[in-house]
Amino acid sequence: MDKYKFRICLAAFLLDGALMVVLTAMPFYLYDHLDSSVAVPANIGAAQSLLYALVCLGISRWLNRIKHSLRWAASGAFYYCAGSGAAILIPNVWGFAIASTLAIMGMSIVWPSLYGWLGADPDPHRRALVLSRFNVSWSSGLAVGPLVGGFLYDWEPLAPFGAAFLIGGVCFGLLWGLPQEEEYYPARAQESEPEWDSHAQQSEHFLVAAWIANSVGWGLVGITRLVFTKRVDDLVSSNELHLFAESDPATFLTENPASIYAIIAFLLAGTSAVVFGFMGLTHRWHHRFRYIAGLQIAAAGAFWILGNTNSLVVMGAAFMIIGALSGAAFFSSSYYSVANFARRRQRASVNEFFVGVGSFVGPLAVGYLAMRYGVSTPFLYIPIAIGVGLAVQFYLIHGRKEAAPE
Per-residue b/e over 46-80, b at no fewer than 16 CB within 10 Å? Predict the structure, then answer.
């Protein structure tokens, strides 16, 4: 990996690390300092996701025409981190919610720009490898961020937000001044390769279904971040959280719920990172949907378990299954999105739109149901929603395969 790609990967690691530092601390900050209910962080997260999705969709065509996309990415990274850090200066729920929500617009510029830059490599296999390294980088940030955010919050509630502000400055310095893709991929980016058209055409058959699977995966991840935190908080407060099935909980499970939640959140994102690395090294998953389908079925079972278990170890295993699904679904959808070179930025932006839609619908619906019927109840019915999404995906792939030319 050359120095330019390394700087992009490092910025992605730090930026998603900052994202998770804030998201891990936010629910507990709202519970402890602004006296909010379980629905409030879920609603904030849903509003962020909706705005993220709409901005991604709105700028998708513009991204195909802009110059200096990495400078826009640098500015967007700093805007998100600075806005998220400054939200705590507003001492009420509404002010915090508005500032946090508006900050997410910076992310809407960052990710499509970075994926467009990396996706400019026209060789499908080389592109898969660099996307794998990039995805491992930001997902590693998602894994480390909860640990840092949880422990920082238990040490000093304002510390995670200050850390995010500082990280934004570092990301800006890493991305500003990097060469644009027209300079980095000169003549190669305009060449037509022998297998390019065939590969792009096959990817088209799976693209929409992959976008939906990606939306499902990120919806489930959003629920674990913005709703399941309350279940962990309740179990710790009532001394009902156990390591396995022992009668009395260990002492370390009766305090510091943010740090405890950070452990299983680390397992979720860490599993996604492992999946990203594996998918970059193998081509067997290309244009095959059974792997994504199997992981969605496994995730449905994982959520049913989360609604019933009081064991931290079992929760960790369920989070790993959800992480595997979100990693595999996102990698395949982002890979298919950049297969068409001419539309890679626009497609990358639409892919992020589906990330936002899933992250909006999942936490909003489950947060409402959790407030009305109890935190654990909605988790028992999530498998039904996953089944509906899976049926739509199978229908799309079957129809597209029949319509595809030989």
Answer: bbbbbbbbbbbbebbeebbeeeebbbbbbbbbbbb
279's tokens: 């998918």
Alpha-carbon separation of residue 51 from 34, 47, 91, 160, 375 (angstroms): 23, 6, 23, 23, 26
Q: Which of 392, 386, 349, 344 is nearest to 208 (CA)?
A: 392
Given a contact cutoff of 8 angstroms between Cβ atoms, the answer to whether 376 and 289 are in contact is: no
DSSP class of 205: H
> Tens of pLDDT along the chain (406 residues)?
678 889 999 999 999 999 989 988 888 888 888 887 777 887 888 888 889 888 888 876 776 666 677 888 899 999 999 999 999 888 888 999 999 999 999 998 888 888 878 877 766 677 777 888 888 898 888 888 888 988 898 889 899 999 999 999 999 999 988 887 767 766 444 444 444 456 667 777 788 899 999 999 999 998 988 788 888 888 888 888 888 878 787 888 888 888 888 889 889 988 988 998 888 778 788 778 888 999 999 999 999 998 888 899 999 999 999 999 999 999 899 888 877 767 777 787 788 889 888 888 888 888 888 888 887 788 888 899 999 999 999 988 876 544 443 3
Any bridge partners for residue 311, and if so which? Answer: 242
CA distances from 253 to 21, 239, 246, 261, 313 (A): 21, 7, 12, 10, 12
Q: Would you mind telling me the total number of residues written for the chain in this entry?
A: 406
Amino acid, single-letter form, for residue 192: S
Rounded Cα gap, residues 223 and 217, in angstroms: 10
Which amino acid makes up residue 102?
L
Q: What is the pTM assigned to this prediction?
A: 0.77
Cβ distance 232 to 242 under 8 Å?
A: no
CA–CA dist 331, 169 (Å, integer): 28
Q: What 8-state DSSP symbol labels residue 242?
A: B
